[in-house]
Design a protein that fits this description.
The chain has 415 residues and is α/β, with parallel strands linked by helices. The protein is built from 15 helices and 11 strands. α6 packs across α12, α6 packs across α13 and α11 runs antiparallel to α12. The chain is globular and about 70 Å long.
Length: 415
Protein backbone atom coordinates (compact mmCIF):
# COMPACT_ATOMS: atom_id res chain seq x y z
CA UNK A 1 0.00 0.00 0.00
CA UNK A 2 2.86 2.38 0.86
CA UNK A 3 4.38 1.82 -2.57
CA UNK A 4 1.03 2.56 -4.23
CA UNK A 5 0.60 5.78 -2.25
CA UNK A 6 4.15 6.85 -3.09
CA UNK A 7 3.65 6.08 -6.79
CA UNK A 8 0.38 8.02 -6.79
CA UNK A 9 2.03 11.01 -5.12
CA UNK A 10 4.92 10.97 -7.59
CA UNK A 11 2.49 10.74 -10.52
CA UNK A 12 0.33 13.63 -9.27
CA UNK A 13 3.40 15.78 -8.63
CA UNK A 14 4.93 14.99 -12.04
CA UNK A 15 1.81 15.72 -14.09
CA UNK A 16 1.18 18.91 -12.14
CA UNK A 17 4.71 20.13 -12.86
CA UNK A 18 4.20 19.28 -16.53
CA UNK A 19 0.84 21.05 -16.58
CA UNK A 20 2.12 24.24 -14.96
CA UNK A 21 5.43 24.15 -16.85
CA UNK A 22 3.79 23.64 -20.24
CA UNK A 23 1.44 26.55 -19.62
CA UNK A 24 4.29 28.81 -18.50
CA UNK A 25 6.34 27.95 -21.60
CA UNK A 26 3.32 28.38 -23.89
CA UNK A 27 2.59 31.82 -22.40
CA UNK A 28 6.20 32.88 -22.92
CA UNK A 29 6.11 31.61 -26.50
CA UNK A 30 2.80 33.31 -27.31
CA UNK A 31 3.99 36.62 -25.88
CA UNK A 32 7.04 36.61 -28.12
CA UNK A 33 6.90 38.89 -31.14
CA UNK A 34 9.20 38.31 -34.08
CA UNK A 35 10.54 41.46 -35.78
CA UNK A 36 8.72 42.41 -38.97
CA UNK A 37 10.08 44.01 -42.10
CA UNK A 38 8.11 46.69 -43.90
CA UNK A 39 5.24 45.31 -45.98
CA UNK A 40 6.85 46.58 -49.19
CA UNK A 41 9.85 44.30 -48.62
CA UNK A 42 7.78 41.09 -48.55
CA UNK A 43 7.49 39.06 -51.79
CA UNK A 44 4.33 38.49 -53.85
CA UNK A 45 2.15 35.69 -52.52
CA UNK A 46 -0.43 33.28 -53.93
CA UNK A 47 -3.20 32.53 -51.43
CA UNK A 48 -4.99 29.23 -52.07
CA UNK A 49 -8.29 28.67 -50.22
CA UNK A 50 -9.98 25.28 -50.76
CA UNK A 51 -13.77 25.50 -50.35
CA UNK A 52 -16.37 22.85 -49.63
CA UNK A 53 -19.83 23.83 -48.43
CA UNK A 54 -20.74 26.76 -46.21
CA UNK A 55 -19.18 26.92 -42.74
CA UNK A 56 -20.47 28.90 -39.78
CA UNK A 57 -19.50 32.56 -40.24
CA UNK A 58 -18.47 31.82 -43.84
CA UNK A 59 -19.28 35.36 -44.94
CA UNK A 60 -16.85 36.74 -42.33
CA UNK A 61 -14.01 34.29 -42.94
CA UNK A 62 -14.18 34.57 -46.73
CA UNK A 63 -14.57 38.35 -46.69
CA UNK A 64 -11.42 38.58 -44.57
CA UNK A 65 -9.52 37.26 -47.62
CA UNK A 66 -10.28 40.50 -49.46
CA UNK A 67 -9.41 42.78 -46.54
CA UNK A 68 -5.75 41.79 -46.15
CA UNK A 69 -3.30 44.65 -45.90
CA UNK A 70 -0.87 43.19 -48.42
CA UNK A 71 -0.07 44.77 -51.79
CA UNK A 72 0.85 41.75 -53.91
CA UNK A 73 -1.52 38.88 -53.20
CA UNK A 74 -3.11 36.55 -55.73
CA UNK A 75 -6.25 34.84 -54.38
CA UNK A 76 -7.24 31.42 -55.69
CA UNK A 77 -10.50 29.87 -54.47
CA UNK A 78 -10.69 26.14 -55.24
CA UNK A 79 -13.88 24.07 -55.41
CA UNK A 80 -14.35 20.50 -56.56
CA UNK A 81 -17.83 21.03 -58.04
CA UNK A 82 -19.49 23.90 -59.86
CA UNK A 83 -22.63 23.05 -57.85
CA UNK A 84 -20.99 23.76 -54.48
CA UNK A 85 -23.31 26.08 -52.49
CA UNK A 86 -20.40 28.27 -51.43
CA UNK A 87 -19.78 29.48 -55.00
CA UNK A 88 -22.49 32.18 -55.10
CA UNK A 89 -21.13 33.57 -51.83
CA UNK A 90 -17.59 33.77 -53.18
CA UNK A 91 -18.73 35.27 -56.48
CA UNK A 92 -20.68 37.91 -54.57
CA UNK A 93 -17.59 38.84 -52.55
CA UNK A 94 -15.50 39.03 -55.70
CA UNK A 95 -18.08 41.39 -57.19
CA UNK A 96 -17.82 43.57 -54.07
CA UNK A 97 -14.04 43.73 -54.51
CA UNK A 98 -13.46 44.06 -58.27
CA UNK A 99 -9.88 45.31 -57.80
CA UNK A 100 -8.82 42.15 -55.97
CA UNK A 101 -6.67 39.72 -57.95
CA UNK A 102 -9.02 36.82 -57.28
CA UNK A 103 -10.41 33.93 -59.28
CA UNK A 104 -12.22 30.63 -58.78
CA UNK A 105 -10.81 27.29 -59.95
CA UNK A 106 -13.22 24.39 -60.41
CA UNK A 107 -12.14 20.77 -60.84
CA UNK A 108 -11.74 17.44 -59.10
CA UNK A 109 -8.44 15.89 -60.14
CA UNK A 110 -7.61 13.16 -57.60
CA UNK A 111 -4.16 12.21 -56.39
CA UNK A 112 -5.07 10.88 -52.94
CA UNK A 113 -7.98 9.80 -50.74
CA UNK A 114 -7.80 13.28 -49.18
CA UNK A 115 -10.46 15.51 -50.85
CA UNK A 116 -8.90 18.68 -49.47
CA UNK A 117 -5.51 17.90 -51.01
CA UNK A 118 -7.20 17.04 -54.30
CA UNK A 119 -8.96 20.40 -54.17
CA UNK A 120 -5.75 22.29 -53.41
CA UNK A 121 -3.85 20.62 -56.27
CA UNK A 122 -5.17 22.88 -59.03
CA UNK A 123 -4.54 25.99 -56.95
CA UNK A 124 -0.93 25.01 -56.32
CA UNK A 125 -0.23 24.45 -60.00
CA UNK A 126 -2.05 27.63 -61.04
CA UNK A 127 -0.29 29.83 -58.47
CA UNK A 128 1.73 32.58 -60.12
CA UNK A 129 4.16 33.22 -57.27
CA UNK A 130 6.93 31.37 -55.50
CA UNK A 131 5.43 31.90 -52.04
CA UNK A 132 2.17 30.02 -51.57
CA UNK A 133 -0.22 30.02 -48.62
CA UNK A 134 -2.79 27.24 -48.25
CA UNK A 135 -5.54 28.36 -45.87
CA UNK A 136 -8.79 26.65 -44.90
CA UNK A 137 -12.01 28.46 -45.67
CA UNK A 138 -12.98 28.74 -41.98
CA UNK A 139 -9.88 30.69 -40.93
CA UNK A 140 -10.62 34.30 -39.95
CA UNK A 141 -7.73 36.30 -41.39
CA UNK A 142 -6.58 39.49 -39.64
CA UNK A 143 -5.41 42.33 -41.87
CA UNK A 144 -1.76 41.50 -41.09
CA UNK A 145 -2.28 37.78 -41.71
CA UNK A 146 0.49 37.40 -44.31
CA UNK A 147 2.92 39.58 -42.36
CA UNK A 148 2.43 37.33 -39.31
CA UNK A 149 3.40 34.30 -41.35
CA UNK A 150 6.52 35.87 -42.85
CA UNK A 151 7.62 37.21 -39.44
CA UNK A 152 8.15 33.61 -38.26
CA UNK A 153 10.19 32.55 -41.30
CA UNK A 154 13.87 31.83 -40.62
CA UNK A 155 16.71 30.58 -42.86
CA UNK A 156 16.16 27.02 -41.61
CA UNK A 157 12.36 27.13 -42.04
CA UNK A 158 10.52 24.92 -44.50
CA UNK A 159 6.96 25.77 -43.47
CA UNK A 160 5.12 28.24 -41.24
CA UNK A 161 1.75 27.18 -39.84
CA UNK A 162 -0.85 28.12 -37.24
CA UNK A 163 -3.09 25.98 -35.05
CA UNK A 164 -6.76 26.99 -34.99
CA UNK A 165 -7.96 29.01 -32.01
CA UNK A 166 -11.68 28.66 -31.34
CA UNK A 167 -13.69 31.87 -31.01
CA UNK A 168 -17.34 32.98 -31.13
CA UNK A 169 -18.70 29.73 -29.67
CA UNK A 170 -22.46 29.39 -29.34
CA UNK A 171 -23.75 26.82 -26.86
CA UNK A 172 -22.29 24.14 -24.62
CA UNK A 173 -20.67 21.95 -27.28
CA UNK A 174 -18.92 24.84 -29.02
CA UNK A 175 -17.51 25.86 -25.63
CA UNK A 176 -16.27 22.29 -25.24
CA UNK A 177 -14.56 22.50 -28.62
CA UNK A 178 -12.84 25.73 -27.53
CA UNK A 179 -11.48 23.87 -24.51
CA UNK A 180 -10.05 21.24 -26.86
CA UNK A 181 -8.62 23.65 -29.44
CA UNK A 182 -7.18 26.42 -27.30
CA UNK A 183 -5.82 25.56 -23.88
CA UNK A 184 -5.20 21.91 -24.72
CA UNK A 185 -4.13 21.34 -28.32
CA UNK A 186 -2.70 24.79 -29.10
CA UNK A 187 -0.85 24.78 -25.79
CA UNK A 188 0.98 21.55 -26.57
CA UNK A 189 1.67 22.76 -30.10
CA UNK A 190 3.36 25.90 -28.81
CA UNK A 191 5.23 23.94 -26.15
CA UNK A 192 7.01 21.75 -28.70
CA UNK A 193 7.43 24.69 -31.06
CA UNK A 194 9.34 26.47 -28.28
CA UNK A 195 11.98 23.76 -28.61
CA UNK A 196 12.11 24.01 -32.41
CA UNK A 197 10.00 20.93 -33.03
CA UNK A 198 6.79 22.34 -34.49
CA UNK A 199 4.13 20.34 -36.31
CA UNK A 200 2.30 21.53 -39.42
CA UNK A 201 -1.35 22.49 -39.11
CA UNK A 202 -3.50 22.30 -42.22
CA UNK A 203 -5.49 25.40 -41.23
CA UNK A 204 -2.74 27.64 -42.56
CA UNK A 205 0.54 26.72 -44.24
CA UNK A 206 3.06 29.10 -45.82
CA UNK A 207 5.32 27.34 -48.31
CA UNK A 208 8.21 28.40 -50.48
CA UNK A 209 7.35 26.56 -53.68
CA UNK A 210 10.94 25.50 -54.39
CA UNK A 211 11.22 23.70 -51.04
CA UNK A 212 8.20 21.49 -51.66
CA UNK A 213 9.05 20.95 -55.33
CA UNK A 214 12.45 19.55 -54.33
CA UNK A 215 10.63 16.97 -52.22
CA UNK A 216 8.28 15.87 -55.00
CA UNK A 217 5.86 18.78 -55.24
CA UNK A 218 2.36 19.05 -53.84
CA UNK A 219 1.84 15.39 -54.75
CA UNK A 220 4.31 14.45 -51.96
CA UNK A 221 1.64 15.41 -49.44
CA UNK A 222 -0.42 12.43 -50.63
CA UNK A 223 1.90 10.06 -48.74
CA UNK A 224 -0.27 10.47 -45.64
CA UNK A 225 -4.04 10.63 -45.26
CA UNK A 226 -3.63 14.06 -43.62
CA UNK A 227 -1.74 16.60 -45.71
CA UNK A 228 -0.40 18.41 -42.64
CA UNK A 229 1.14 15.20 -41.24
CA UNK A 230 2.79 14.59 -44.61
CA UNK A 231 3.95 18.22 -44.67
CA UNK A 232 5.63 17.83 -41.27
CA UNK A 233 7.53 14.75 -42.44
CA UNK A 234 8.48 16.28 -45.81
CA UNK A 235 9.91 19.38 -44.12
CA UNK A 236 11.85 17.41 -41.51
CA UNK A 237 13.20 14.97 -44.10
CA UNK A 238 14.57 18.00 -45.98
CA UNK A 239 16.47 19.08 -42.87
CA UNK A 240 14.21 22.08 -42.29
CA UNK A 241 11.81 23.08 -39.51
CA UNK A 242 8.12 23.73 -39.16
CA UNK A 243 7.48 26.93 -37.21
CA UNK A 244 4.29 28.36 -35.73
CA UNK A 245 3.33 32.00 -35.97
CA UNK A 246 3.51 34.15 -32.84
CA UNK A 247 -0.21 34.94 -32.79
CA UNK A 248 -2.33 31.93 -33.83
CA UNK A 249 -5.35 32.45 -36.05
CA UNK A 250 -8.97 32.34 -35.03
CA UNK A 251 -11.64 29.96 -36.27
CA UNK A 252 -15.18 31.16 -35.50
CA UNK A 253 -17.13 28.15 -34.29
CA UNK A 254 -20.74 29.24 -33.99
CA UNK A 255 -23.10 26.53 -32.84
CA UNK A 256 -21.80 22.98 -32.63
CA UNK A 257 -23.43 19.64 -31.83
CA UNK A 258 -21.82 17.03 -29.62
CA UNK A 259 -21.54 14.72 -32.63
CA UNK A 260 -19.66 17.38 -34.63
CA UNK A 261 -17.19 17.97 -31.81
CA UNK A 262 -16.68 14.26 -31.16
CA UNK A 263 -16.25 13.36 -34.84
CA UNK A 264 -13.69 16.11 -35.36
CA UNK A 265 -11.65 15.19 -32.31
CA UNK A 266 -11.84 11.47 -33.12
CA UNK A 267 -10.67 12.16 -36.67
CA UNK A 268 -7.69 14.10 -35.42
CA UNK A 269 -6.86 11.48 -32.77
CA UNK A 270 -6.86 8.67 -35.33
CA UNK A 271 -4.72 10.73 -37.68
CA UNK A 272 -2.19 11.42 -34.90
CA UNK A 273 -2.14 7.75 -34.00
CA UNK A 274 -1.53 6.74 -37.61
CA UNK A 275 1.10 9.40 -38.43
CA UNK A 276 2.92 10.05 -35.14
CA UNK A 277 2.32 6.99 -32.97
CA UNK A 278 5.11 7.68 -30.47
CA UNK A 279 3.78 11.17 -29.85
CA UNK A 280 0.23 9.89 -29.60
CA UNK A 281 0.90 7.39 -26.80
CA UNK A 282 1.46 9.90 -23.95
CA UNK A 283 -1.97 11.41 -24.60
CA UNK A 284 -3.51 8.75 -22.36
CA UNK A 285 -1.85 10.51 -19.39
CA UNK A 286 -2.96 14.02 -20.37
CA UNK A 287 -5.85 15.91 -18.84
CA UNK A 288 -6.84 16.50 -15.25
CA UNK A 289 -9.03 13.46 -14.54
CA UNK A 290 -6.30 10.92 -13.67
CA UNK A 291 -4.42 13.27 -11.31
CA UNK A 292 -7.70 14.25 -9.62
CA UNK A 293 -8.40 10.57 -9.00
CA UNK A 294 -4.88 10.32 -7.60
CA UNK A 295 -5.51 13.30 -5.31
CA UNK A 296 -8.68 11.59 -4.08
CA UNK A 297 -6.66 8.44 -3.28
CA UNK A 298 -4.05 10.49 -1.42
CA UNK A 299 -6.69 12.46 0.49
CA UNK A 300 -8.33 9.23 1.63
CA UNK A 301 -4.98 7.73 2.65
CA UNK A 302 -4.01 10.75 4.76
CA UNK A 303 -7.45 11.45 6.17
CA UNK A 304 -7.91 14.77 4.38
CA UNK A 305 -11.29 16.15 3.25
CA UNK A 306 -11.90 14.36 -0.05
CA UNK A 307 -14.11 16.90 -1.83
CA UNK A 308 -12.06 19.88 -0.69
CA UNK A 309 -8.78 18.25 -1.78
CA UNK A 310 -10.06 17.40 -5.25
CA UNK A 311 -11.72 20.80 -5.67
CA UNK A 312 -8.53 22.61 -4.62
CA UNK A 313 -6.47 20.61 -7.06
CA UNK A 314 -8.99 21.23 -9.86
CA UNK A 315 -8.89 24.95 -9.11
CA UNK A 316 -5.13 25.03 -9.59
CA UNK A 317 -5.25 22.79 -12.68
CA UNK A 318 -7.95 24.66 -14.57
CA UNK A 319 -6.96 28.01 -13.10
CA UNK A 320 -3.60 27.67 -14.87
CA UNK A 321 -5.39 26.96 -18.15
CA UNK A 322 -7.57 30.04 -17.62
CA UNK A 323 -4.40 32.06 -17.04
CA UNK A 324 -3.09 30.87 -20.41
CA UNK A 325 -6.31 31.84 -22.18
CA UNK A 326 -6.30 35.26 -20.52
CA UNK A 327 -2.62 35.89 -21.33
CA UNK A 328 -3.13 34.88 -24.96
CA UNK A 329 -6.33 36.90 -25.36
CA UNK A 330 -8.41 33.83 -26.20
CA UNK A 331 -12.06 33.19 -25.47
CA UNK A 332 -12.45 32.70 -21.71
CA UNK A 333 -15.93 31.99 -20.25
CA UNK A 334 -16.60 32.06 -16.51
CA UNK A 335 -17.66 28.40 -16.66
CA UNK A 336 -14.35 27.31 -18.23
CA UNK A 337 -13.48 24.77 -15.47
CA UNK A 338 -16.67 22.88 -16.36
CA UNK A 339 -15.75 22.75 -20.05
CA UNK A 340 -12.17 21.76 -19.22
CA UNK A 341 -13.42 18.93 -17.01
CA UNK A 342 -15.81 17.72 -19.73
CA UNK A 343 -12.91 17.69 -22.20
CA UNK A 344 -10.67 15.75 -19.83
CA UNK A 345 -13.37 13.17 -19.17
CA UNK A 346 -13.52 12.57 -22.93
CA UNK A 347 -9.76 12.30 -23.47
CA UNK A 348 -9.36 8.65 -22.32
CA UNK A 349 -12.43 7.67 -24.37
CA UNK A 350 -10.97 9.40 -27.42
CA UNK A 351 -7.65 7.63 -26.91
CA UNK A 352 -9.23 4.18 -26.77
CA UNK A 353 -11.54 4.95 -29.71
CA UNK A 354 -8.56 6.12 -31.77
CA UNK A 355 -6.82 2.80 -31.10
CA UNK A 356 -9.87 0.68 -31.90
CA UNK A 357 -10.90 2.17 -35.24
CA UNK A 358 -9.51 3.48 -38.50
CA UNK A 359 -12.47 5.10 -40.26
CA UNK A 360 -13.67 8.69 -40.06
CA UNK A 361 -15.81 11.09 -42.06
CA UNK A 362 -14.61 14.50 -43.27
CA UNK A 363 -17.18 16.80 -44.89
CA UNK A 364 -19.24 13.85 -46.04
CA UNK A 365 -16.24 11.86 -47.34
CA UNK A 366 -15.55 8.47 -45.77
CA UNK A 367 -11.83 8.00 -45.18
CA UNK A 368 -9.48 5.52 -43.49
CA UNK A 369 -6.18 5.81 -41.68
CA UNK A 370 -3.61 3.03 -41.78
CA UNK A 371 -4.64 0.00 -39.75
CA UNK A 372 -2.87 -0.80 -36.50
CA UNK A 373 -0.02 -3.25 -37.05
CA UNK A 374 1.17 -4.58 -33.66
CA UNK A 375 4.54 -5.83 -34.91
CA UNK A 376 5.29 -2.52 -36.57
CA UNK A 377 4.18 -0.58 -33.48
CA UNK A 378 6.33 -2.75 -31.20
CA UNK A 379 9.29 -2.31 -33.53
CA UNK A 380 8.89 1.47 -33.30
CA UNK A 381 8.91 1.21 -29.49
CA UNK A 382 12.15 -0.79 -29.21
CA UNK A 383 14.51 1.16 -26.90
CA UNK A 384 17.35 1.29 -29.42
CA UNK A 385 15.16 2.71 -32.16
CA UNK A 386 13.49 5.17 -29.81
CA UNK A 387 16.86 6.41 -28.54
CA UNK A 388 18.26 6.63 -32.06
CA UNK A 389 15.36 8.89 -33.07
CA UNK A 390 15.48 10.95 -29.89
CA UNK A 391 19.23 11.43 -29.52
CA UNK A 392 19.72 14.12 -32.23
CA UNK A 393 16.69 16.00 -30.95
CA UNK A 394 17.81 15.82 -27.30
CA UNK A 395 21.27 17.04 -28.28
CA UNK A 396 19.77 19.94 -30.23
CA UNK A 397 17.48 20.93 -27.35
CA UNK A 398 20.39 20.69 -24.89
CA UNK A 399 22.56 22.88 -27.10
CA UNK A 400 19.77 25.42 -27.42
CA UNK A 401 19.24 25.43 -23.65
CA UNK A 402 22.95 26.03 -23.06
CA UNK A 403 22.87 28.98 -25.48
CA UNK A 404 19.85 30.47 -23.69
CA UNK A 405 21.51 30.06 -20.28
CA UNK A 406 24.71 31.71 -21.51
CA UNK A 407 22.66 34.55 -22.95
CA UNK A 408 20.77 35.02 -19.68
CA UNK A 409 24.01 34.88 -17.66
CA UNK A 410 25.58 37.52 -19.91
CA UNK A 411 22.51 39.73 -19.68
CA UNK A 412 22.41 39.63 -15.87
CA UNK A 413 26.17 40.09 -15.53
CA UNK A 414 25.95 43.29 -17.59
CA UNK A 415 23.41 44.81 -15.20
Amino acid sequence: MTALILATAVFCFAVTVIQVGSIFIAICRLRRRSPRASTSSYPPVSLVRPLCGIDNYAIDTLRSTFELDYPHCEILFCVASAKDPVLPLVEGLMAEHPKANARVLVGDERISPNPKLNNVLKGWHAAAHQWIIIADSNVLMPRDYIQRLFASWRPDTGLVASPPIGCRPVGLWAELECAFLNTYQARWQYLVDSFGYGFAQGKTMLWRRADLERSGGIEALAKEVAEDAAATKVVRDAGLKVRLIDQPLAQPLGRRSLAEVWNRQLRWARLRRASFFMYFLPEILSGGVLPMIGIAVLAHAFGLPLALSVASFGTVWYGCEMLLAAAAGWHLPAAYPLYGLMRDLLLPVLFVSALKGNAFVWRGNEMQVERMRPRRMMAQMQPRRVMARMRPRVQEVAAGSRRRLRSLHKRFSER
